[in-house]
Amino acid sequence: MLQDFRLKVFLKVASEKSFTRAAEALGVTQPAVSQNVSELEKSLGVRLFHRLRGEAVLTAEGEVFVAYANKILSAASETELLFSPLDMSEIRFCVSEEIYSDFILPSLAGFIYIHPEISIIRSSADECDLRVSVKPSVIGVKTSLELDYKPTQAFAFTKTCAVLKNILGF
User: Fold this and answer.
1) Is the pTM of this model over 0.85?
2) What whole-number distance in Å separates Cα of residue 67 and Cα of residue 50?
3) CA dihedral defined by 104, 98, 140, 167, rounded to 10 degrees?
4) Strand blocks (E) in 6-141
């Protein structure tokens, strides 16, 4: 829904180094690939490829845009996942009260607003979906905290787990 097909076409041409091979891989015609890339170039105001005989080579601008196209598609995918129906009614965190109230709940404020049907619960150590512990780590001269995230095996494969990993940065 949020993902722009032109970005997928651009990335496929960049990886295949060919409009024809990109078209075959995407299951569309070569003119459709050319049109999508041309529209993208027009909207950006730059050329993304040098079109050589049988080969498409990224321009300097195209090289830079590859990273942005990947970020845009990744953000769109994460957003679609966040707003889609999720597969749980409650999530139990095994975590200290401090981390739960200072980090987990504030980080999940938007998630809780979007999914009020899912209860976020701080639980005892023997019944939880996620274990979060804090490890001190030293980076240069600064000391920071590193959160260790361990989902239960069943929870690790849920859509909800993927959403929380993105939100909490695990």
Assistant:
1) no
2) 18
3) 0
4) 49-52, 55-58, 90-94, 119-122, 130-139
CA distance to 9, 48, 78, 128, 154, per residue, from 161 (Å): 30, 37, 12, 13, 10
Tokens in use for 35?
Answer: 């049109």
Q: Give the torsion through C-alpha atoms of 97, 99, 105, 107, to 10 deg.
A: 180
E strand spans, 67-163: 90-94, 119-122, 130-139, 142-151
pLDDT digit string (tens) for 75-129? 888 888 888 888 788 888 888 888 888 888 898 999 999 999 999 989 876 788 8
As given in the structure block, the two tokens for residue 4 are 């722009």
Structural domains of the chain in order of their starting residue, each with its CATH number: 5-83 (1.10.10.10), 90-168 (3.40.190.10)
pLDDT grade for 2, boundaries at 50, 70 and 90: low
Q: What is the pLDDT of residue 50?
A: 96
